[in-house]
Design a protein that fits this description.
Elements: H1 22-28, E1 65-69, H2 84-92, E2 95-99, H3 105-117, E3 126-130, H4 131-139, E4 173-186, H5 187-194, H6 202-205, E5 214-217, H7 220-230, H8 240-255, E6 259-263, H9 266-273, E7 278-282, H10 283-287, E8 293-296, E9 302-310, H11 318-328, H12 331-341, H13 350-353, H14 371-374, E10 377-378, H15 385-398
Parallel strand pairs: 1-2, 1-3, 5-6, 5-7, 9-10
Antiparallel strand pairs: 3-9, 4-7, 4-8, 4-9
Helix pairs in contact: 1-15
Length: 401
Amino acid sequence: MTNRTSITRRKLLVVGGVGASAATLAACGAGVTSRETGTPTSSSQSETPPSPEPIEKDLSDSEKVVYFSNWPQYIDVSKKNPTTLNDFTSSTGIDVVYTDDINDSNEFFAKVQTNLEQGRSIDRDIVVLTEEGVELFIDSGFAAPLNKQLIPNWVNLLPSLKEVPFDPGREYSLPWQSGFTGIGWNTPLLERELGVAEITSLDQFFDPKLKGRVTILTEMTDSMGLILNWLGYDMSNFTAQQFDESLEVLVQKIDEGFIRQVTGNDYIAALDSGDAIAVIGWSGDVLGLGQKFGFGIPDSGGMLWADNMLIPSVATHKSNAERLMNYYYDPVVAARLAEWVQYVCPVSGAQEAMEDIDPDLVEDQWIFPTPELLETVSEFMYMGVEMRLAYDRQFQKAVNM
């Protein structure tokens, strides 16, 4: 396996104009999730998402091209063998202009927001976004509903990913890849410092012998999710008080010098160089470093997430984009992609197809999770756009980002 990632694929979405704390939004009755109970609250403001003027027409029939934006190093590349994109073009006659220019959802949204609001093309027909990014596009009226007739392979979507709160019924999005947030480590250095070959708990992660040699993620959900679970709470259903208590513990660890850095995907370079011995990180990234490195879910639980394909409302080659989505939901194509990215494959049938591609990966639980592994992880509590932004602000302020 190779190190495929130079920057984060999962930076949390933070858009300006939101108060510094969740309490501020709650006090204003701003149509958010209750911080005390996790249940929806009523809104005193009823805002209609902007409705951009539609593109004149879909040019797919006359222009055999699709513009595809993704995160860096999130697709197979090869100098010797045909890639999945090459084969899509060969089989359909549709050229793919592929750009790995999505570095974080906030940056990408800011770059295209004006054109989206004015109904102008953003020169992209399909984009891969975090769950939070998808929700913002939908909530703002900037997502095009999918024509499932052109995506018959969508039925291969794993049942566990079909119903999601940020896109009920998968009307606008389909998962590109999924993955786990857990703990990664540099095995030789870990053995030297702790005398063990793996980390199974956050108690070990915060062992005094590792002080100053561990990192956490800038992403609020990932870092806070693991801390919440470690303290006996539930990342999928917590209160404001529990969040505040967990954040205080995390800040204390930072102040005491345990945490070397609060970082995006820079943790990969630090882990590789030995500057960091252990990290809160993502499964595919750590496993892609090679056999000297390990990844696991702490005994208190880890997190499951997905990055998703979406067609912007101003796409000019929508049908071509839907054909590309359909192509990647062919089990054989999905298996070829999974072999390279080493993340959780969202396509049913890909595990069987992997037999002919790389038999060693057929039973790889990080690509094809077992029921036992899935029982050790959960998704972060759904909050809606405004409440999530408020929690993000609180987290960022606390860790001095």
